[in-house]
């Protein structure tokens, strides 16, 4: 009987999945009887094994590693890997870097990232961060408030810089992460990139508690400063002074035999002194994560889980290139979910009810000024520019709320005629509400005119009269003769006597106060059926999505399969699927926004006149009608093989992104300028990757290298914004708002009527497309982690190949109008910031961590940690060639952790 028990226990272990919850048979697990031996009885022995023959069984198998050995394109990160590869802020997105093909926005390595708490946007399978589906405990964490999450401009005129995620989840609260980059089951929808599923920490079956503290500061950071060839040596910019701290505490315990709970709070705060146009400013940021989770066992087969999550963030900033430009942002949100899980004879089910809300708002000065850089509005000598920027774009509040009912059913396997069938079905309904509120009118002043003798006629905020230390008559009296402006010494004397040079604005754009609301009903359903015959697995799924904004009935087929061979040591994977993008609620909000309007004024006898409406007054509206839902067609092939105790994977992914929403210029019946939404956009993504990942008793290793090509069709762009009948006198070919346009050097956006001299005037919409984020041709990663007694050590090397990158030059250039804008007005000259595309060289970075644990009394443990990034102090080439700027070098965190 005892002999039978031992064999049964081993059989139970062998039937458990080796590569996590897989559909296919786990490979490289072998049972082998090594030896049988007779145990000699001793007269003093109390062993009941005396005289019996023991069968010694050795089980060999591979440890769990991130590569899923199934037909799905899934990678799994457990708690051990999360702890080993937590560097920097410890945000969810940061740990994804070890996986093949994952890329980050350029801002991930910018100098201000060292103090920033906002996670860098991440790209999976070539899509932007907003097109990746994020789920926390099965609940969507995607923000639908705007599509400006990767914009090159942080200080937007008519929006708030958002993020693809509502809440910035910290890794301290995460138990495991699943990432899909291809062959995504029909259960998941509303994405065209990848899927990231984070499960929060498990509730302990006994009392556990702990707290941790991590800190970094300017003394822990090596800054690398670079100067342009024309930079004057007497101007030396100081390094930032900052400190950033992370606090975390948790407690988890059973309350009764059936009820248990977990409470955890995490705070990340940052304070930094930064140089902003010659002034030292203090920027502050905070991010909270608070989780309260209850689990109740209703019966042996049913359980309830209540999750309450609070995750606000806030920041106080200053515009990088403007004076007197403070602005603050608030975001984040709250979620409440109730989940009922059950098992029945026919299978298992999961019912989920969710309520969540989030916000994204900013407070800023109500007026933006583009002055001429001259006395009275002069930049420091170390900051050369033709313009002096000042102010902000006003206050904006955005809110999002939703209610979700979701039901998933997983039916038990059915065997029939050598075939094994397994079916999953589910459906969900969601109601979404969003609100945009510009609290007051905001005014953007442009087209400044220099006028030494101007009389401002009582206008104080948008006009400056000339001011001198001494009157000109007094100066000439002291000189004993009239000033001669052809004489260099007289000209210098006159210049040094100026306190302020007269200038005034003859043009301004008014962004009217407005409030708009939008709501949407969404319904989804799916079925996923998998058939296994011997070593072949084929899965076919369909997903249906509908919402009452686009009113499209979208059916997305999902097909995937795998075939195991070489005694389950090898696997071939194939798939073809369609993924429909998220129908952004921001489109509906944009439709409700009021257009801007322009005002102009002239000067008569050196006296400014009153503001008057422009002859062509209105800006533009947005209209989205009869649009198809953008989608991505995917084809993928992969080969996996068990090698050297791990899994090697060769993978090809092709994505063809069709019916992408672009913008087409036009007019409605009332003559208003309209940006119509259209489905002419197209892009294509190809990735080839080679990966090898393995886990051993106390170590794990991951290596991957990916070659990527991401191409966007010309029809996706707005194109050149000017027409120039008599260059350099030009006019805009559409009623774009002034804040929407920038100059771009070295781009492929051309127009025959414009004598470019390497500059194109483009929209910020096009700028984000040109930016080439998430499009490095080659990315390679090598990561390793190990635990040796009380020591834990990890390292991570990431290689970035060279690429064309977008740089903000800090300069401005003007567009001169072909005619006057009003009677008495001078020809208009509107200035726009200049960006440039230049090659960024290849570079690689080494990060690493060391942790040491000290056992205390009983179950009490104290741990010390060191986590470093860019340990070899390599360049990241964030500073453009021949420019002045700051790059991050070596930096590290120190930490202390107590657990019970």
From TrEMBL:
Output this protein's name: TonB-dependent receptor plug domain-containing protein
Q: Keyword Transport: yes or no?
A: yes
This protein's GO cellular component annotations are: cell outer membrane
Keyword Transport carried by entry? yes
Tell me where in this chain the TonB-dependent receptor plug domain is found: 77-194
Q: Where in the cell is it found?
A: Cell outer membrane
Q: Please name the source species.
A: Pseudoalteromonas phenolica
Gene3D superfamilies tied to this protein: TonB-dependent receptor, beta-barrel domain, TonB-dependent receptor, plug domain
Coiled coil feature spans: none
* Superkingdom field: Bacteria
User: One Pfam family from the UniProt entry?
Assistant: Plug
Q: Which UniProt keywords apply?
A: Cell outer membrane, Membrane, Transmembrane, Transmembrane beta strand, Transport
> What PROSITE patterns does this protein map onto?
TONB_DEPENDENT_REC_3
What's its membrane topology? Multi-pass membrane protein
Q: Which family does it belong to?
A: Belongs to the TonB-dependent receptor family.
